[in-house]
Design goal:
Elements lengths: L4 H7 L1 H9 L3 H8 L3 H8 L7 E3 L7 H4 L4 E5 L16 E3 L16 E3 L17 E3 L17 E3 L17 E3 L17 E3 L17 E3 L17 E3 L8 H10 L2 E3 L1
Parallel strand pairs: 1-2, 2-3, 3-4, 4-5, 5-6, 6-7, 7-8, 8-9, 9-10, 10-11
């Protein structure tokens, strides 16, 4: 008795999933298209790890195939109703004329760069990665402390970052109204480039990668000896004696 590949795959899901692991997304798709039963029992149940880019017109796939990670780019979009995009894995809305983003709370990676009308991001606390570059109307980021990666570059009206202490990678580049960074000592990668009003960095000694370039008010870096990657470019008020000590302990020091 002989069995076709289709029969073997249909009757033994363990073997099927192992085979699927060795195939690209396109090959998996084409293989399962050969049979409705394969498509229903295998393709739609297998957890695909690739991120697949689709056009906006195909957004319904995000609801139909929850086991596939889809990404959609909608730069400069005039879209108003974002509810149709709530199940997208990776979503780029850069330069879009949107205001209410609360419905996007299940998105994994979200780029809202230059979405200048966005104010309230309190519902986005469960995302993995969020970019708010130049979203100058955002003032409250207290609910974003559980994100893995958060880009707040040029968010000119943010003042309190104390609740972001559990973020892994945090970019505060050019956040001029941030004064106190004492609660950010557990952040792994911290960019404070051109945060020109910061004076005290004594609590940042356990940060792995720290960019303090163009922070002219910083004078004391004596507690940063354990930082692995440290950028002190254009920090002109740090004494030579302190820099000599850091050279001995900091693995990658830029001055």
């Amino acid at each position: 008795m002989t069995f076709s590949t289709k029969q073997i795959l249909t009757n033994n899901l363990n073997i099927s999933f192992n085979i699927m692991t060795c195939l690209s997304f396109k090959d998996r798709y084409n293989l399962c298209l050969t049979s409705k039963s394969l498509f229903e029992t295998l393709f739609k149940k297998y957890q695909h790890n690739e991120i697949i880019e689709i056009k906006f017109k195909d957004y319904r796939l995000c609801d139909i195939w929850r086991n596939v990670k889809f990404k959609i780019y909608l730069k400069n979009s005039k879209i108003k109703d974002l509810s149709m995009l709530k199940n997208v894995h990776t979503l780029n809305l850069k330069y879009s004329n949107i205001e209410d983003v609360s419905v996007l709370r299940k998105v994994h990676t979200l780029d809202l760069s230059w979405c200048v009308n966005v104010k309230d991001v309190s519902m986005l606390g469960n995302l993995h990665t969020l970019c708010l570059f130049h979203c100058f109307k955002v003032t409250d980021v207290s609910m974003l402390g559980n994100l893995h990666t958060l880009d707040l570059c040029c968010c000119a009206n943010i003042t309190d970052v104390s609740m972001l202490r559990n973020v892994h990678t945090l970019d505060l580049n050019n956040c001029q109204k941030v004064f106190d960074v004492s609660m950010l000592g557990k952040v792994h990668t911290l960019n404070l480039f051109s945060c020109r009003n910061i004076t005290d960095v004594s609590m940042l000694g356990n940060v792995n990668t720290l960019n303090l370039s163009n922070c002219p008010k910083i004078t004391d870096v004596s507690m940063l000896g354990n930082v692995t990657n440290l950028n002190l470019s254009w920090c002109y008020n740090i004494s030579k004696d302190q820099l000599k000590k850091l050279i001995k302990t900091v693995k990658n020091l830029k001055i």
